[in-house]
Amino acid sequence: MNGRIRLFVLGACLAAAGLAQAQPDAFAAARERGELVVGVPYLAPPPAAGAKIRTPDGLDAAMSDRLGQSLGLPVRLRQVSPGEAASALAAGQVDVVLADGVGPQPESVAAQPTGYGARPKAVIRSDTKLRRPADVRGRSVCMAEAATASKALAESWGAVVRTYRVPSDALVAVREGSCDVGLVDDAVWEPLVRFPEWKKFSSTLTADGTRRERVWLLPAADSASRSWLGQEMRAWDRAGAWKAMTAKWARDVAFDVYLDQEVPDCHG
Known about the structure:
Blueprint: H1 2-16, H2 28-33, E1 36-40, H3 60-71, E2 75-79, H4 85-90, E3 96-100, E4 109-118, E5 120-123, E6 140-144, H5 148-156, E7 160-164, H6 167-175, E8 181-185, H7 186-193, E9 212-219, H8 223-238, H9 241-262
Parallel strand pairs: 1-2, 1-3, 6-7, 6-8
Antiparallel strand pairs: 3-9, 4-9, 5-8
C-alpha cells in the first residue's frame, strides 16, 4: 500500500512540475518523424556568414523548444502565417502552429490558449519628455521586423517606423540615440529594465494597444494531442514557465546589446 501511495505522489509531483510524459498517441506524426515541426508567424532571415547569432523577437522559439523538450523531440521551426495554418496542418507540413490571437479558423483547426499574452511597451531614455503616444508623432520608433503588432501601433501614433532583423538591433539604436523609442512586449519590458545598464532607459509611454494571447493551432480531429497540450499548458502555468522564459529572453537580449556596443566584431 505504501509503495502505491509513493508512486501516486511521485506521479502527481511530476505532473505538477510539467515533467509528466506525453500520452503515447499525442503528436503521433511528430514521434514517427522524430521531429516536432512548429509553424511560427515569422522567422528572421539567417545572419550573414560569420555574423553574431542574436536572440529572435518574442517567445515563439523558446515556447517551441520547451514543447519539444516535453515531448522528447527536437524542434524545427517553419514560417506559417495564420491564414496558412489550416492547409499546413492538413498537409502534415507542421504538427502545430503558434499564432497571435485565435482569429477566424475553419472547423478543422482547434485553438489551445497558451496563457501568455502581451502588448507593445516602449523603451525610452529616462531624460526625455516622451510620456504619451501622442508625444511620439513624427519621432522614430524602432522594433524587430517580427513585431507586427508593435509596427501597427507605432504607425497609428504617426511615428516614423524603423524595423530591424532582431530586437537587439532596435534597442542598440535606442541606446545610441539614433532612435527615439524602442518597442518590446510588455511581458519582457520589466525584466529588461531591471538590469543596471538599462536604468537610464526605463521610461515608457502610457499603455496603448490590444493585449493579444499566443495560441497553439492544431488539427481539431487530433483529440489526443489537444488533450495533452491543454494539460501541458496548465503545467507550464503552475511551474512559472512564463516568468522564466521572459526573464531569460530579457537576459539574452541585454547580453546581445552588450556584445554589439562593447565587444568588437571580429568578422566586421
